[in-house]
Amino acid sequence: MPQYADYVVIGSGIAGLYFALKVSDSGSVIILTKKQQAESNTNYAQGGISATIAETDSFDAHIEDTLRAGAGLCHRPAVEVMVRSAPHVIEELRMLGVHFTRRGRTLDLGREGGHSHNRIVHARDATGRAIEAALLDALAKRTTVHIVEHATAVELMTGHHRRGGKRSAAPTCYGVYALLPNGQVERFFARATLLATGGCGQVYAHTTNPPIATGDGVAMAYRAGATIANMEFIQFHPTALYDPSRPGPAFLISEAVRGAGAVLRNCGGERFMVRYDDRAELAPRDVVARAIDHEMKTRGDRHVWLDLRHMEKREVWERFPTIARECARRGIQLPEDMIPVVPAAHYCCGGVWTDLYGRTSIERLFACGEVACTGVHGANRLASNSLLEGVVFAKRAASYLVAHPPAPLGAEFDEILPWDDSGTANAEEWVLVAHDRQELQSVMWDYVGIVRSELRLQRALRRIELLRDEVEEFYRRTKLTPELIELRNMVTVAWLITQSALHRKESRGLHTMSDYPLPDDTRWRCDTLLRQGRVWCRPLTDIACDKAGQ
Ligand SMILES: Cc1cc2nc3c(=O)[nH]c(=O)nc-3n(C[C@H](O)[C@H](O)[C@H](O)COP(=O)(O)OP(=O)(O)OC[C@H]3O[C@@H](n4cnc5c(N)ncnc54)[C@H](O)[C@@H]3O)c2cc1C
Fold first, then answer.
1. What's the distance, CA 372 to chain centroid?
2. How far is the centre of ligand 1, averaged over its atoms, from the C-alpha of 199 (Å)?
3. pLDDT by residue (tens digit) across 313-349?
4. Catalytic residue numbers?
5. DSSP element (H, E) containing 285
6. Based on the structure, what is the number of domains in the chain?
7. In this structure, which residue's CA is closest to atom 2 in ligand 1?
8. 280 lies in the same domain as 180
């Protein structure tokens, strides 16, 4: 049976849940989420949320730090909106029951790379889990909100899916097709649809992201004809735990550990970061990740060390209990033992292009959180600005929709076709899906990683296009499973990242090209936009903040 709600939200991380909470007084909400409701990147966020709270800090300083990290590509209006909203949303989260760590009568404020002040609000070292739990608790009390677990969104419903391919003048989203646990694909109609599907770290062989992070929202939006931006800017976190005995997402050693005084050493024992940057271990993530990559490649080492040996045991266990316990489970006793660490794919600065209210280039389709590109991160995200971005822009999208409720859907109920799986069968070649996923992850890691070149990117593109053809053919003749849906999306996202990387012929922020080692402001101070097979650059000076990517 098709279902209807005023709002359909895809994803139950910080962005989806906060949006749902904010619109729940003005209409019915269905949240679709592809695993259990708490399973999200949000749930694994450790370090915290940045906010100007200390008396010695200022909005201007937080704005400047964000712009500096973004290497000339941040959109200042978006940054200002985010930074100035931060203290207020922290207070709202506190009122919802998030127990942020306190120092005496004030919030304890941590320090992370690229920040000029202590401004990281945190719940010890499990900030995301505390937020996710509080938001889910608050939503459980709302009778207007219904969460559907294990429901995988497959495709956005647009004019293409109307009987006779009838399209409205402007591309419009009417909701989403989603695969339910009973194997059926159902239609979920809405006045407005929010993409809050998080990031895409899983396209890389080494990532801190959980298995849900397969870029589904970006891929669905791209196929629906939305404008996608800045996908070349993938952040590699410098310090994921190196543990070859355990496949799957790499356990993150939060930047806050370096903020608290831990130092990096190469396998020769040298504190190498002082050779690369005046800020040493507290340089922005891209600088630290590249330095580690360089040390590992030139020395032939498989990891570097994070050294906490000079720190107080009590302080380490009190401030970082999750990290200390996880290390102990793997035989690393803190702070006596050093932690082996490597960089891993962590965050996607690009995504579905939106304006300051989460509006995309498709009518009735909104996007917030890591799936969106609001312009706040530019070429590199400042640490702890992503939970903040998710919550601030979810709130703005909700306020916009409450103030401007879209008209109810009309004829579309009858005109949007049910999912057609005629001609598909249960396949016996599932090994192909697992194999293609691994192959894609290796290609992305080896050729579209921390340091890139045109040759490697061209090679990656050829392999990705072969995989794309193979996966599309398999998709057309096979009954859907979540794994197949994810693989198809991962291939699309890998293609978008590689195309964007090939287009940008310079090095800037997170995008390092060995053949173009310097930034080039005259040609490349622009966003990379992609839509329906076309890639182009739009200079930052052309940005009007009222409508997304038009
Ligand atoms: C280990 C780790 C530590 C981090 N630490 C910090 C930090 O300290 N501070 C900070 O600011 N940021 C941090 N980040 C980044 C931050 O956690 C994420 O950017 C942020 O949580 C993204 O929130 P979101 O709501 O956009 O998406 P997510 O929290 O990732 O939620 C996405 C949701 O969408 C669902 N979904 C995806 N695809 C589909 C589909 N096809 N159908 C249905 N549902 C779908 C998922 O199941 C999930 O519920 C960290 C990230 C990681 C991985």
1. 8
2. 6
3. 999 999 999 999 999 999 999 999 999 999 999 999 9
4. 285
5. helix 285-299
6. 3
7. 45
8. no
